[in-house]
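In the design runs reported in the main text, the only information available to the sequence generator was the tokenized backbone. The following block is the verbatim input for one such run; it is reproduced so that readers can re-run the procedure and compare outputs position by position.
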């Protein structure tokens, strides 16, 4: 408890506040507390996967002016007298680690006023080679989040869902296509911080903390039913997956942790290949020999109540900042949105998105601001002491996200492919450099907060139960 009363360090750090005046952002509207799920839906809602008078595009080449005209008339953005005459598209996102194909679609010329139609759009297509299970988890969750929840209903400022397409196929891979408003159009530019660089602007980080607090408060202690029937639950799966007993999911998370921790040293062993993950050497030495027998207890603690709807991938490049946004920031990319522990989002953003020295000096202030935002938007019975402890423990949840893909990285390194190829692509180099910074920040945060000592607490608790 004494640790919570420590004042912020007096040593100054650089605050990089860009040209936007974040202090004058649009205020949040009150949260929408609906009694029925239809009250949370966007206007002109249509069931996901319903029949349409057009086919679902599979690439930007198929998002033509003619296709857009048909779709936008069906969606109500264009009247029968209005028409998209010219479109300019280009691919975006290479080397950023996305699961999807992305394109920027600008509507250059339109006949008519079409006052409600965004002129700059993002098109997102599900890749045909993605495994069916992964496709259901990533694209299925995001499709429902966009399609079934309005901005007011979700409790989070997000892009306008112009069109969410889904086709369930009897043979082959299901197909998804999202057409959403661009969060950073030329007419209203926003500020975006790169993951590799990190964010040292306390005012912007405070905006993100408040937005996450509001989002989590909207779904505090939510259930996997009704509006959130589609959401994956950490205790019994469901949503895009079959519902299973709690012990099965806990075992699954434990196996992911063990497999990842086993594979990670193979990513930085001394040979002629590129080294990956060596930043975690000290941390692995501290938890080695302890975590194997406690992996299930760690999984249980990671998903201990309270639970809420979490973004699941709240990194810097999924947050846009501008004074014209409600609350000053705007989130994108909801492919990993699920029911989870609320501090998962907070620890991920703080633990991986802020340069080490800045994080050390402002993390307590940021978590206090997040907790105050929870209280502001209606959460009760959740003390700051518990919030701080959850933040510290959830730093390992960010590690679990890495451990999930570490066996794949170890295989790539063995085969000298991807980031580990003798001649990596520009996208692979960008991805490697990004992970280099993220790993350094997360590994330092885990050791700074002495996360390994929490394993001793779990061990003591397990013995106490016996």
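Verbatim output:
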């Amino acid at each position: 408890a004494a640790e919570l009363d420590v004042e912020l360090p007096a040593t100054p750090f650089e605050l990089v506040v860009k040209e936007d005046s974040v202090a004058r952002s649009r205020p949040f509207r009150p949260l929408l507390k609906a009694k029925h799920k239809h009250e949370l839906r966007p206007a002109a809602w249509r069931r996901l996967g319903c029949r349409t008078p057009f086919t679902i595009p599979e690439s930007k080449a198929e998002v033509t002016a003619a296709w857009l005209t048909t779709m936008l008339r069906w969606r109500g953005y264009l009247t029968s007298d209005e028409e998209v005459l010219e479109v300019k598209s280009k691919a975006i996102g290479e080397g950023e680690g996305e699961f999807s194909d992305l394109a920027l679609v600008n509507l250059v010329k339109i006949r008519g006023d079409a006052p409600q139609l965004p002129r700059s759009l993002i098109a997102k297509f599900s890749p045909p080679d993605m495994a069916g299970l992964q496709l259901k988890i990533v694209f299925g969750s995001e499709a429902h989040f966009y399609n079934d929840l309005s901005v007011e209903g979700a409790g989070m400022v997000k892009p306008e869902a112009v069109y969410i397409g889904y086709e369930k196929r009897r043979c082959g891979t299901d197909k998804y296509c999202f057409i959403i408003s661009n969060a950073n159009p030329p007419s209203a530019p926003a500020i975006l911080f790169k993951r590799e660089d990190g964010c040292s602007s306390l005012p912007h980080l405070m905006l993100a903390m408040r937005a996450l607090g509001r989002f989590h408060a909207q779904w505090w202690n939510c259930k996997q039913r009704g509006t959130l029937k589609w959401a994956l639950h950490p205790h019994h799966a469901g949503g895009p997956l079959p519902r299973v007993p709690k012990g099965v999911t806990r075992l699954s998370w434990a196996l992911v942790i063990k497999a990842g921790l086993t594979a990670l040293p193979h990513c930085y062993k001394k040979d002629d290949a590129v080294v990956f993950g060596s930043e975690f050497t000290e941390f692995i030495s501290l938890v080695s020999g302890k975590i194997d027998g406690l992996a299930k207890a760690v999984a249980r603690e990671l998903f201990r109540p309270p639970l809420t709807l979490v973004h699941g991938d709240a990194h810097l490049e999924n947050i846009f900042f501008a004074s014209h946004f409600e609350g000053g920031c705007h989130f994108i990319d909801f492919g990993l949105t699920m029911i989870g522990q609320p501090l998962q989002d907070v620890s991920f953003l703080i633990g991986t998105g802020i340069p080490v020295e800045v994080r050390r000096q402002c993390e307590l202030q940021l978590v206090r601001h997040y907790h105050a935002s929870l209280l502001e938007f209606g959460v009760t019975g959740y003390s700051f002491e518990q919030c701080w402890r959850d933040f510290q423990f959830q730093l390992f949840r960010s590690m679990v996200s890495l451990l999930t893909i570490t066996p794949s990285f170890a295989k790539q390194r063995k085969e000298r492919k991807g980031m580990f190829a003798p001649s990596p692509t520009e996208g692979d180099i960008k991805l490697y450099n990004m992970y280099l910074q993220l790993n350094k920040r997360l590994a330092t945060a885990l050791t700074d907060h002495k996360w390994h000592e929490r394993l001793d607490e779990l061990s003591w608790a397990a013995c106490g139960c016996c």
